[in-house]
Amino acid sequence: MSAARPLPPRPAALIFDFDGVLVDSEPLHCQTISETLVAHGWPPVPWDLYQKTLMGFDDRDAFRHAAPVGTSERDIAALVAEKAALFAALAEAGRVPPLPGAAEAVRRAMATGLPVALCSGALRSDVEPVLRHLDLVSAFPVLVTAEDVAHSKPDPESYRLVLSKLGVAPEKAIVFEDSLDGLLSATAAGIPVYGITTHLPPAVLRSHGAAATAPSLALAVDTLLA
Length: 226
Description:
The chain is of the alpha/beta class. The protein has helices at residues 26-39, 47-54, 59-66, 73-92, 102-111, 124-133, 157-166, 180-188, 202-207, 217-225; strands at residues 13-16, 116-119, 142-144, 173-177, 193-196, 212-214. Helix 4 packs parallel to helix 6 (124-133). The radius of gyration is 17 Å and the shape is globular. The two termini are 30 Å apart.
């Protein structure tokens, strides 16, 4: 059990995860990782195994776990590039659906004047086509993705970088996260977390440090802004 850091009553910034919070992209990540593995003669990753072991990882760590033991870092980088090209093409085609009300929730948060940021373990090439599709390209003046850090989630480096760019103390911000790796990353950076139950039940998110939970980003943001 992890003790939850309480949500600040007047947050100084709101930080959004991407996959599973703004968009329902995890199935497509699983699909494109599997297609890349199969192209090299290796077995695909079943969805249930992906949810248990890979969800929340960036592509580098996902392939380190999914590729055969002994796969070199050079080959891992090649697999990441292949998967990224597949995912980007499908994202440009609109194959990454937004979660209900999520884009509108971001706009409501922006309308308050609160600084907002996006912190994702995905590649920038995964994120930007989807933001264009949702008309949210200019929504996040601070955007941190996997390329910006040496160690992605569950390491706290990405969230610490976001805080540095925002100039906000960790206890004054709120992170919206849906995965255990994301929760570990945010809480290790000292940031209170609002858990979104896209893939995991409230009790699991709370046991890993979420101060509050909601079934959707829209409901979480509305509750905070009420």
